Model the fold of this input.
Amino acid sequence: MKLFDIAFKEILRSLRNAFFLFFGLGVPLLATVIFYFAFGGAGSGDGFELPVTQVQVVNLDQGGSAYGGFSAGQILVDFLRSEEMADLVQVTEAADPAAARAAVDRQEAGVAVIIPAGLTEVAFGPGKEATIELYQDPTLTLGPSIVKAIVSQFVDGFAGSKIALEVATEQLAAYNVPVDDDLRQQIALAYGQWAQELGASQQGGSNALFQLRAPAGEEAGNEGLLQMVALIMAGMMVFYAFYTAVASSMTILQEHEAGTLARLFTTPTSQGAILGGKFLASGVTVALQVAVLLTFSHLVFGIDWGEPAAIALVALGTVVVATGLGILLNSLLKNTRQAGIVYGGVLTVMGIGGMVGVFSGQMPGSGSGVDLASLVTPQGWAVRGYGLLLQGMGPLEVLPTTAVLLGLGVVFFVVGVWRFNRRFA
Amino acid sequence: MEKAIEVRDLHKRFGDTHAVQGVTFDVRQGEIFSLLGPNGAGKTTTISILSCLLQPNDGDAFVLGHSVVREPMAVKAAIGVVPQELALYEDLSARENLDFWGKMYGLRGPALRQRVDEVLALIGLVDRQKGAVRKFSGGMKRRLNIGIALLNRPQILILDEPTVGIDPQSRRSILDSVKDFNRQGTTVLYTTHYMEEAQELSAHIAIMDQGKLIALGTHEELVHIVGELDRLQLAVNVPAEAVLEPWQATEGVHKVSAADGVVTLLVDDSNQVLPKLFEAATRAKARITSVDIQEPNLEAVFLHLTGRALRD
Done:
């Protein structure tokens, strides 16, 4: 009973300790949030999301009966207004170029796309040139770049038709087939239709030009970001769990120096209950930290840590190994003045060693040289455990790693407790 | 009268240091017993053994008949210990501190709450019971430090220099409290290097020096050791070392010691010796700036027995 009283007192003091709250919970979360936003998470509720750009379009190209009613300008307008582009651009047709530019100047639109008259003729005729004008808000970068990329791809498509036309003309001339204007138009139209059909067949109904911003690509990006955030979160969690364990075990030395430990020994309380209560508190504090960080990262970053049973195993292993190491390291210290050596030296070096795989962007458990090198430290094993969780491994797959963590933790614990018992005997 | 504490040929060594050397004494039930001696005399080591914090290398001590070596839990249950340094959790409130320490003495539930209320009233912290200890004054912390030792209604209260470094008002309050606890039947073992405290509080006093118990008895018995000698305290306008030798050689002077610029002497008859001391000072080119003649007291006893002042 007294063991639990001591543990409760320790936990209460930890929760009132601004240092623990800041470094144990605040810093790991803060570090992960910083990474998250640094890699584009800002502004998204559930993943990476590009802003929708307001576009003013003026189509001066009329196409013409000479091209079978075909209008390159209208194709571009329809393209920009298509359903697939709705997540990227919102198109409004302006009456004339001046009105479109004025809308941009008023910042009602990010970009004005002014399609020149005769674009169709240029697209299908040889040796002519035309310029599609992009008028953009100078304060914007991403939106105008997207619109420019879309228009460039569109123009490239028509450039392809011109190349196809010239190649066909040369081939027919080689076979002495006369090429008149009608034939040239038929070739250009046929290429245009072929290109559109090809795009549709490759993208399952979507135009090939949409490939750069296809939803599938966006999802992959989000997945990558989440994976990276999850890895960083796991690394931070492990890194700071060990700090918390050492700090909470250090209360033995702090109490020794403050005289409260000696006073405890003057009460009818066994040494086992006193040390056991403090070690229990250390374990519970680390468990609390891990639980809060796992829950927070799941709710805020949407990290899927996997099956609850597997999570419990890895978390248990982390708590036991961190607590054990904390007790061992403190048992080696003579006083709290030596704590800087542990914090600044041992734990930092071990933590970096354990996270070397995360820093190099490799998934823990990948079996690479860097990954294997990280296993020299207990932190490396803990990071490996979370890496396995992120790869969707279940309880059976994480069991060996958990066993190593538990084994190391027990060894650390036994040696540390033995040393403390000797010191206070 | 039954013995509350029996200390028998106690020895404690720390490496080459023989901190306690064959100390033997008894404390009777219901009395206040003081261990008097300068810093490093072995007082704290002795009560650390009695509190079961240290194991003796030789000898044994018995608290209410329980050996500190073989029955430490029974000893701990019977005593309350007030350490010299404050031993409190400053980030907890006064009540939380008392609650916790009460549990360490095995109190639970309503009995714990009632005892905590009683102790808070006893130490005058009822109004501040929910305040964080770190915001308390030094005197309040001292009171709480003592209150913790009262939680288990100890039959024996051990106080290790509880008045070191505190203001006169708090010191007075602590001395009065100790007397109150004693009046209520608690046996008190009190260590101090303040002769006045031992003299005021104690029925019996043991004087310790360099790990040994050099005198033991009532105040009157101890003072009798120095007989009819007078105690002089003289201040000079030069370093005290300049007059130590000539004064030691002066007829009628038994002991000479210097501390904090003041020279303490044990002399046969101050009226006859003082003129000789003035002459010796003049020869040593020193001038006496103040003279204090005192009746024999524990300070004189210590000087007589050790050749040093208690403050050395």
Strands of chain A lie at 53-59, 89-93, 111-115, 133-136. Chain A touches chain B through 20 residues (CB under 8 Å). The domain at 53-213 of chain A is CATH 3.40.1710 (abc type-2 transporter like fold).
